Amino acid sequence: MLAALLVAAGLSAPAHAFETTAHAAVLLDFDTDTILFEKNPDDEVPPASLSKLMTLLVIFDELKRGAIRMDETFPVSEHAWRTGGAASGGSTMFLPLNSQVSVADLIKGIAIQSGNDATIVAAEGIAGSVPAFAEMMNRRAQELGLTHSHFVNPHGLPDPAQRVSARDLVTLAAYIIRTYPEHYPLFSEEEFTFNGITQRSRNPLLSLGADGLKTGHTSEAGYGLVASAKDDGGRRIVFAMTGMKTVGERATQARALMTLGLRGFENVVILKSDETAGEVPVSGGVAASVPVRAAGEIRFIEPRGSGSPYQTEIVPVGTIEAPVPEGRRVAQMRITRDGAVVREEPLYAAAEVERAGLLQRMQEQVLGYFR
Description:
Strand content: 25-35%
Helix content: 25-40%
Catalytic activity: Preferential cleavage: (Ac)2-L-Lys-D-Ala-|-D-Ala. Also transpeptidation of peptidyl-alanyl moieties that are N-acyl substituents of D-alanine
Oligomer: single chain
Binding site for substrate: 214
GO molecular function: serine-type D-Ala-D-Ala carboxypeptidase activity
CATH superfamily of the largest domain: DD-peptidase/beta-lactamase superfamily
Protein name: serine-type D-Ala-D-Ala carboxypeptidase
Radius of gyration: 26 Å
Strand order of the largest sheet: 2-1-9-8-7
Largest sheet: 5 strands, antiparallel
CATH class of the largest domain: Alpha Beta
Keywords: Carboxypeptidase, Cell shape, Cell wall biogenesis/degradation, Hydrolase, Peptidoglycan synthesis, Protease, Signal
Mean pLDDT: 92
Low-confidence stretches: 1-16
Order of helices and strands: HEEHEHEHHHHEEEEEHEEEEEEEH
């Protein structure tokens, strides 16, 4: 499976293909959006507590638009207390009945303690009811293109209509990391104390260098995890795994996939974001050529030691006539490996080239005639 993915991306497969006992898994290189590994990525499976990532996203959205505040408090209803509290037998924040809880505490109770009661209190406080909040979750899922996900409640307790896919979970996690960097650090907190009760995060990778995100488990869903981590150079990976049979299996398989993502691949930089790629000839300008650059850094993610180097060629987009404003698309960078084109990137003028005067243009034409 891994070999097929990398060949499709123009890369070479590592010496041995990775395998996992998870039912479904997706490993993403965060910066390049490259899928490094996948297994049953679009299978629709019960989400368990992994659905709380969407719950938290909706909360973050409401904070951003000013609909709620961190210091605002919501009441703990009897429904939240009975369905998600200590008597329910599931993961809980142990919220007292009829108490008031701040949004800030609810966020930590959901992200760190995985409190089912906290999700219900947040849903009722924001949308008025669990079904209304689920509609908000599904609306955001649709906006993010999560085509294999549907939410019925904010906590992930079993419901036949509730489902997610590993690919959708990775997309959701990456979106949270990119969009809400101010909230993301809370996913790396290993414990939270509320009302005198301290609970630790169930994420087995936090002590191994991961900085998020969420675990989940029900008898129906098995054990699952969505995680993210960076290597020593700052390259981030995001991955999701579902359907493991024991908490120990989840820890072992997640650690193996994280190791593959961080140590099995490396970045190959073709062109830095502040670097010019070369020059393209200009006709009729005060300069004979214009330097060109890409819109940003051009790089590949590939298995370590995967072989032959890349070759690059700058191909002008026809004849470039002056005047040339800075930022105009004037060429393509053709990237090849072993004679095969693996990627093409647009190149833009890195400087302005004004049109030459009549005399200079006539001299250029005469010189061109004798060349």
